[in-house]
Automatic annotation (TrEMBL):
Designated name of the protein: TIGR03085 family protein
InterPro entries to which the protein is assigned, alphabetical: CHP03085, DinB/YfiT-like, Maleyloyr_isom
Transmembrane segments: none
UniProt source species: Trujillonella endophytica
SUPFAM superfamilies: DinB/YfiT-like putative metalloenzymes
Lineage: superkingdom: Bacteria
Length: 201
């Protein structure tokens, strides 16, 4: 009997940790101003410091600026005081069970998109990258996440899958249509417009 694959969040975490190990602490990312060391520290703080959560969740709101400054300070302290290999090991290990992110169901729900995006942030900043051919179940999960992210971008947006004919999601009234693979749509709706391979009309 063939065993079921690990949840997408776990597989993306492992692949990202492998890539962090391979490129080292000074590799570029698609996140402006961040090296691979910044990215790794962000993931560990997000996983292991619940007090950083409000700063991430409310970043775009006026009240969130002060909270986000706290989260950023925790990331900088961790990045500058912890050896990179230790940071990557913490990324690979994941959150402790006593944290909210340590709850398996919540972790897979929240972290699948997070780790897929940040994995691509690092992959697509390296030479010679190409889009990955992901299993259908993974694309379906990323599609659901992309439609949620789209609601935070703006109304008047239509997302259209190119891997499954006839599947699209309208956000608000008719407006810009974005066509692409779910990973590409997720990257676009999360702000990675420069590296997302989508067609706009």
């Amino acid at each position: 009997m063939t065993s079921s694959p690990a949840p997408l969040a776990i597989r993306e975490r492992a692949a990202l940790a492998d890539l962090l190990d391979a490129v080292g602490p000074d590799a570029p990312t698609c996140c402006e101003g961040w090296t691979s060391a910044h990215l790794a520290a962000h993931l560990v703080v997000r996983d292991r410091r619940p007090d950083a959560g409000p700063g991430y969740a409310l970043e775009t709101l006026p009240i969130g600026k002060r909270l986000h400054a706290h989260s950023a300070r925790l990331e900088e302290e961790y990045r500058t005081r912890t050896p990179f290999a230790q940071v990557v090991a913490a990324v690979r290990t994941g959150p402790p069970k006593w944290t909210p992110m340590g709850i398996p169901a919540l972790s897979n729900l929240v972290n699948a998109g997070e780790y897929a995006i940040h994995h691509e942030d690092l992959r697509r900043a390296q030479p010679g990258w190409e889009p990955r051919d992901l299993p259908q179940a993974d694309r379906d999960q990323l599609w659901r996440t992309a439609t949620l992210f789209a609601r935070r971008v703006r109304r008047g947006l239509v997302l259209r899958r190119t891997d499954v004919p006839g599947v699209e999601k309208r956000i608000g009234k008719a407006g810009t249509t974005l066509a692409g693979d779910p990973m590409e749509l997720l990257l676009w709706t999360s702000g990675r417009t420069a590296v997302a391979r989508v067609e706009q009309s």
